[in-house]
Amino acid sequence: MSQPTASGEHVLIFDTTLRDGEQCPGATMTFEEKLEVADLLDEMGVDIIEAGFPIASEGDFDAVSAIAKRVKRSVVAGLARAGLKDIDRCGEAVRHARRPRIHTFLSTSPIHMKFKLQKEPDEVLDMVRASVERARGYVEDVEWSAEDGTRTELDFLCRCVEIAIKAGATTINIPDTVGYTVPEEYFALFKTVRERVPNSDKAIFSVHCHNDLGMAVANSLAGVKAGARQVECTINGIGERAGNAALEEIVMAIRTRSDVLPFKTGVDTTMLTRASKLVAAATSFPVQYNKAIVGRNAFAHESGIHQDGMLKHTQTYEIMTPESVGVTKTSLVMGKHSGRNAFRTKLKELGYELGENALEDAFNRLKALADRKKVIYDEDIEALVDEEIATATDRIKVVAMIVIAGTSGPQSATLTLDIDGRHQTVQAAGNGPVDATFNAIHSLVPHTAVLELYQVHAVTEGTDAQAEVSVRLQENGRTTSAKAADPDTLVASAKAYVAALNKLMIKRERGAPAQRFVEPAGRLRGV
């Protein structure tokens, strides 16, 4: 049974997702979900897994016990208050672990001792000694934490730490329990305690920072630079109030900035994204899009300037590779800020090769779509380009339309079509907005074709998704089908109907001598 060791450059990663993370309101996990998370943490190389708070409930005790029995490499820790019953329960829960740890804590700040514990300083010192000694009766690996350590009087904190180490604590944690400190202050605290406590070299020092002021990661790294060699953190930074230091940010900061953080961890960083998604799903806590390392936008670029730089050299705007955290590749997101070079590259990825004129037309349509739709998916681009290709040589094109719909009626459509280069406008009524739209088309382009199919489905998700409309027309044994997409279902309907008419014209012309079906007024006949 070995205790974790930290060399001069090695930093131990203590994951408390299953304990402190689960204390986040609404983030409770089921027994099976806890086991799944623990298995992944063990696989990815986390040094210590804090599996839960055994005395909190039977469910917590059972989960800690089960995790202790199945984890293969990591130390399995249980949390316990300074009370002897807590420690006994914790010792029972972790006893089957290959590498068990009891993590016991006690408040040391004046405000906590006065209002929470209602104890005098000497009583607290006695409790520190008794709790650590009791824990050592169960395991060799004991961690002691000074709750609210950053608001504790320095002299008293040093006395507590010295007593805890003398009683057998192998790890000393000085947490920023309420997210109050700043990096320079936290650095000085660890440096001073390690210098003033005579037996400080007998224990590993640990940081545990909350994110109330948004500095949990920065504070944690400051503590490491001051000599701490264990970081307590959670996947996605979940935890009480504003959360904890995010494991993925700690690990990647150390890996990426080895010039100023000359340390190492044993975590397989390619599993970070997988772990993030698992914890997000288990806790039903979505990861914010712009979350560092694992957020959806962490390796996504929409700005044309950034996209152009990325296409020339990825390090222009990315300080780490997406593959290093388990993301397949960089994403060049198409939107209103995208540039032509990125759009051309995206089209090549989707299998399209367009000439300059067609590319310019498609690019302008992308910009127009981006002004109407928040998220542009690959399927949106495919629908847009397919329609561009299909309508490039069409004799009839939709120019503009206004549709009036509602319960009072009558429904009507005012439609403008480009017919062989001339704009024609008409207003028509119908039994509903779609019928009115198709009647308007029929009025401008008289024909005998029968509508055999009219089908609508969403190209992508969301209420702003493009509608893809399929239309099938039949005339004298000739059948044509066409599709069109647009965020407005009625516009897509008109475009699909007109596209089918264009195809019907081509079929008609292929079976008869070419002729121009234009009346003096500009309307097509014989279609």
Can you describe what's shown?
With 527 residues, this protein is an alpha/beta fold. The protein folds into three domains: 12-283, Alpha-Beta Barrel (TIM Barrel), CATH 3.20.20.70; 300-389, no CATH class; 394-510, 2-Layer Sandwich (Double Stranded RNA Binding Domain). The chain has 16 helices and 16 strands. The strands form four sheets. An eight-stranded parallel β-barrel has the order 1-2-3-4-5-6-7-8, surrounded by nine helices. A three-stranded antiparallel beta sheet has the order 11-12-13. The radius of gyration is 33 Å and the shape is elongated.
Number of strands: 16
Structural class: alpha/beta
> Can you tell me the CATH topology of the largest domain?
TIM Barrel
Beta-strand proportion: 15-25%
Features of this protein?
3 domains; 16 helices; eight-stranded parallel barrel; elongated; 527 residues; Double Stranded RNA Binding Domain; alpha/beta; three-stranded antiparallel sheet; single chain; TIM Barrel
Secondary-structure topology with pairs:
Elements lengths: L11 E4 L15 H14 L3 E5 L5 H13 L4 E7 L2 H11 L5 E8 L2 H8 L3 H16 L5 E6 L6 H14 L3 E6 L6 H14 L7 E6 L6 H10 L4 E4 L13 H10 L15 H12 L16 E2 L2 H9 L18 E2 L7 H10 L6 H17 L5 H14 L4 E9 L6 E9 L2 E9 L2 H12 L5 E9 L8 E9 L2 E9 L2 H22 L17
Parallel strand pairs: 1-2, 1-8, 2-3, 3-4, 4-5, 5-6, 6-7, 7-8, 9-10
Antiparallel strand pairs: 11-12, 12-13, 14-15, 15-16
Helix pairs in contact: 1-2, 1-10, 2-3, 3-5, 5-6, 7-8, 11-12, 13-14, 15-16
Brief sketch in words of this structure:
By secondary structure, the protein is α/β, with parallel strands linked by helices. It has helices at residues 31-44, 58-70, 84-94, 110-117, 121-136, 154-167, 183-196, 216-225, 247-256, 272-283, 304-312, 340-349, 356-372, 378-391, 433-444, 489-510; strands at residues 12-15, 48-52, 75-81, 100-107, 142-147, 171-176, 204-209, 230-233, 300-301, 331-332, 396-404, 411-419, 422-430, 450-458, 467-475, 478-486.
